Amino acid sequence: MILLDGKKLSEEILDEIAKKVDKIKKNNKKVPHLAAILVGNDGASETYVASKVKNCEKVGFNSTFIRLDADVSEQKLLETIQDLNENSDIDGFIVQLPLPKHINESKITDAILPSKDVDGFHPTNVGYLALGNPKFVSATPNGVMEMLKRYDIDTEGKYCVVLGRSNIVGSPMAILMSKNTKPGNATVTVCHSKTRNLIEFTSKADILIVAIGKPEFITSNMVKEGAVIIDVGIHRVADASKKSGFKLVGDVKFDEVAPKSSYITPVPGGVGLMTICSLLQNTLKATENSF
């Protein structure tokens, strides 16, 4: 079993980005500028946005953090997005999800200028992805593809099961794995909460990508010997032995599944770190497109 080390890979990618930014600065070109909008005080979102800002500083990006109250009106959020759309100094920005229930997420996503949509969620960017001409690929699926590529994992002709069908992870992941690319060229099945006899699909998968949002859902009896396991999930579960009172786990029961796998991502230290790198890669791409 080989651990797919997101920490090691992310450090390599961040270093590559930092060198490109250093070259940009030496050539007196525009420094990439990423903005993030956070609505409310969700703990996981706070941590994620803070990590994005920290990594912006690490690679030499400029960053802007905009915090709005949880009861902010939808109209006010739309006006903030429009301000960023019109700000020529901002190359890309994200609106951290999830949003409060009184705000329509689709309306917010649609309001972001596609050329600044570094999360890759806008329908225009999703369409480009589906047609095989991606502009900005959703950060998490892109991070998974980068991981498969850098570990030189053979995906061609393999049977890949994607567990989860969200617009953020599952659906774009299935598209990417089926495209005529490397990595890619897999035969893909998408499973979800309504799939019957789920184990019949997961136990045959050469590559199992899990983004179902249920802690430690995948157990050893659900995977085949030698499978590649990509765990996208991350959850806080109570653990009295920890000082914090909780531990982080994924959608896969790691201790059970790892011995059967050929490659597996840990949680934490796996896909999550690659997601942030992909966001920065997209921002750099947005800046380069503006030259």
Summarize this structure as a short list of keywords or feature phrases.
291 residues, 10 helices, globular, Rossmann fold, 3-stranded parallel beta sheet
CATH topology of the largest domain: Rossmann fold
Our count of domains comes out at 2
CATH class of the largest domain: Alpha Beta
Low-confidence residue ranges: none
Structural class: alpha/beta
Helix content: 25-40%
Radius of gyration, rounded? Answer: 19 Å
Terminal Cα separation, in Å? 44 Å
Q: How large is the count of helical segments? A: 10
**CATH level-two architecture of the largest domain:** 3-Layer(aba) Sandwich
Number of strands: 11
Strand content: 15-25%
Overall average pLDDT: 94
Q: What general outline do the C-alpha atoms trace?
A: globular
Largest sheet: 6 strands, parallel
Helix and strand sequence? EHEHEHEHHHEHEHEEEEHEH
Plain-language structure description:
The chain is an alpha/beta fold and 291 residues long. It has 2 domains: 28-113, Leucine Dehydrogenase, chain A, domain 1 (Rossmann fold, 3-Layer(aba) Sandwich), CATH 3.40.50.10860; 139-272, Rossmann fold (3-Layer(aba) Sandwich). It has 10 helices and 11 strands. The strands form 3 sheets. It has a 6-stranded parallel sheet with strand order 1-11-8-7-5-6. Helix 1 packs parallel to helix 10, helix 2 crosses helix 10 (271-289) and helix 6 crosses helix 7. The longest helix has 21 residues, at 6-26. The protein is globular and about 50 Å long.
